[in-house]
Amino acid sequence: MGEATTLNNIGGVYSDLGEKQKALEYLSQSLPLRRAVGDRSGEAVSLYNIAFAKRDRGNLTEALTNIETLKIIESLRTKVAGPELRTSYFATVQNYYQFYIDLLMQLHKTQPKSGYNTKAFEASERSRARSLLELLQEANADIRQGVAPELLQRERSLQQQLDALEKRRIEVLNRPNHTPAQEAELEQQRQTLITQYQDIQTQIRTTSPRYAALTQPQPLTLSQIQQQILDENTILLQYSLGKDRSYLWAVTKTSITSYELPKAAEIETTAKNFRAAVTDPRYRDIPNRVAEANNALSQIILQPVAAQLGQKRLLIVGDGVLNYLPFAALSLPGKSGENGNPPLIVNHEIVLLPSASTLGILRQNYSDRQAPTRTLAILADPVFSGNDERIKNYSSATTEQAVESANPGLSRSRGNNNVQFDRLKFTRQEAQIIQALVPANSRTESLDFAASRATATSPNLSQYKIIHFATHGFANSTNPELSGILMSLVDENGKPLNGFLRLTDIFNLKLAAELVVLSACQTGLGQNIQGEGMVGLTRGFMYAGAKRVVVSLWSVDDEGTSKLMSSFYQGMLKKGLTPAAALRAAQLEMLQQKQWQSPYYWAAFTLQGEWR
To answer: Which residues contact 225 (CB under 8 A, 6 or more apart)?
Structure first.
């Protein structure tokens, strides 16, 4: 094994020196040794390096025969039981997929009728959100059935220990004389329990007959996407950003067209400039600044496909920085000013997806489930502070430090955003307008102290088609598991409560919702993991059973959100529009009002999941 690694490394050095033939000689000696010792991961590396050297010598077709690496990667990936480890392994091998896609697209240039662009598109689909596909398939199977009772008992016991520890932690940290050593000890105990809990979940998966019977969900092929996902009025735009070149595939019900775009670094710079122009208080109200940033980005990522868009619905599968982009506010390049091209939202419904295959499996999951009987559950206007006037003994107000103590990890979760948890007064108005659209016997509203973590995790939520959270939410892009939604942090007497609904809590919910709306700050963000896309709250709610999720891409103006949401619900509940069409109608309404026409106010909200 050591000899094989050394030969491979020498080959790598010759390759970097530009001596490709010499590199191939060493790499070709490394490969049989790796096969002889059964080093599958090493074999994948050698095959990749051989293909790389052959491509650099211009032997594209020969290079293609060596990229069976991907079969090895796929087989190794499925041997990893835990979803977290599987995701991180997949992120480390994304360069193999990028190389394969680039190789196929270079072959497509020389042989445009040989279907290489279709193969490249399918490779791009295989490289995306695979752990999410598996999680969604697992969500629909009761994997705990048939598992040894003692494992399930251990899992329950660990959950109870975690809850008890959380309670003890709140009590200890609320004592004025608690020490940093006590705090550190509690944190260490918590980390130990979480690790044990994850280990038990992995054991449950590996010993579950139901889990073993789950076939690995295969990403959809081009023809399956065209038949199952698209209709005549919908076009899929799938982006793949690469080190040297990027690609865009435009897929309709009957065709596929591909385009070569600049390298990832160039797209990232222009995309960040556009996002800053739309969201930064210094620039967002300067139309020329926004138009300039728009044209630079639009010229790169939209101009090539502009002639195909018509007025079709756009299903967008982004990549990297494009997952943070408000596509609704982007317009086709053209003159700036009043006579310029309108934002995409004027002519298109826009829906975002982690991958086209995700929608296939979501549809499979809810095709046979019983629809909820009630319409709407609203959780809004929670109490965040001991200084809130809604508390009975206002004078004995709880300190912010006590609230932080009751919600371990809260300050860490908000990262360096310096978020202040002020009361969101307009969320109450928002809730009242929305609830008036639904008969009293078909809705429930939890306001003030009732907008609690206990309400949010209650099994009763499974009875509702639409679940609406109007509160603070935030994404932690470094530690996605610390992303969350904030419920009431104190009770009626000002006593601190654990009010932080974390991503792990969301994964444990059991919903049957047509729609979950997170009318809160930055709920659409998360950690952008190579090969998985955005790992955040949306994924948690899809796993919990939501068909579609409406989330925001930046911290949104409280009053503006309230206006948008009122209009959005009017569209769904009074005009009978689909959620995607209702969101577009609400955004258009704001665009036409001078006070709200800046995209900062309306373009943050995006719909992910089912568009039908």
So the answer is: 125, 236, 251, 356, 357, 360
Span 354-390, pLDDT tens digits: 899 999 988 888 877 788 999 999 999 999 887 888 8
CA–CA gap between residue 322 and residue 304 (Å, rounded): 16
**Residue type at 455 in one-letter notation:** T
Please give the Cα distance from 115 to 108 (Å, whole number): 7
- Helix, strand, coil share of the chain (percent; to 5): 55, 15, 35
Mean pLDDT of 301-318: 96
Q: Specify whether the CB–CB gap between 444 and 463 falls below 8 A.
A: no
Assess contact for 380 and 468: CB atoms under 8 A. Answer: yes
1-14 pLDDT tens trace = 999 999 999 999 99
Closest by alpha carbon to 564, among 588, 531, 532, 537?
588
Neighbours of 65 (CB within 10 A): 12
Q: Do the Cβ atoms of 449 and 380 come closer than 8 Å?
A: no
Nearest to 8 by CA among 73, 58, 52: 52
Strand pairing category for 484-486 and 526-529: unpaired
d(CA 103, CA 98): 9
Specify the residue for token string 């009772």.
149
Over range 264-290, report the average pLDDT. Answer: 91
Closest CA to 400 of 326, 487, 494, 282: 494
Other Cβ atoms closer than 10 A to 206: 12
Residue whose C-alpha is closest to residue 555's, from 420, 384, 386: 420
**SS3 of residue 69 by DSSP:** helix
Check if the beta carbon of residue 409 is closer than 8 Å to that of residue 344: no
- In this structure, what DSSP letter does residue 521 have? T
Beta bridge partners of residue 239, listed in sequence order: 248
pLDDT at residue 396 in the model:
47
SS3 313: strand
Report pLDDT for 101: 94
d(CA 384, CA 400): 9
- 264 within 8 A of 242, measured Cβ to Cβ: yes
Strand ranges (E), 363-449: 374-380, 443-447
Contact 328/603 with Cβ under 8 angstroms?
yes
Residues 375 and 443: beta-carbon distance below 8 Å: yes
Residue in 434, 590, 592 with CA at minimum distance from that of residue 515: 434
Contact 611, 380 (CB under 8 A): no
HSE (side-chain half, CA atoms, 13 Å) at 68: 6
